[in-house]
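Weekly modeling sync, notes
Attendees: S.R. (lead), two postdocs, one rotation student

Agenda item 3: backlog of single-chain predictions. S.R. asked that every request posted to the team notebook include the full sequence so nobody has to chase files. The rotation student volunteered to paste the first one in as an example of the format we agreed on. Action items at the bottom.

Example entry:
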Amino acid sequence: MQTKVSARGQIAIPARIRKAHNLRKDSRIEWIDEGGRIILIPLPDDPIDALRGAYKGLLSTEDLLKEREQERLHE
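Predicted structure, as returned to the notebook:
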């Protein structure tokens, strides 16, 4: 897919991509300039909500400290 940059530096995101990524007015997009390529990453409406549950199943700080103490005792 190709689009043009307007005289004001704006681009149009093709409808198929907007729908696939639920992009609408005021959606935020991160731009990454990666050596000859531009990468666009849709950002969640609520970044805190998007992270909810991301660390589920990982050890708590207390558990990590207990584990480290056990390792230290066995050395």
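Discussion: group reviewed the output briefly. The mean pLDDT is 87.
Action items: rotation student to repeat for the remaining queue; S.R. to check formatting next week.
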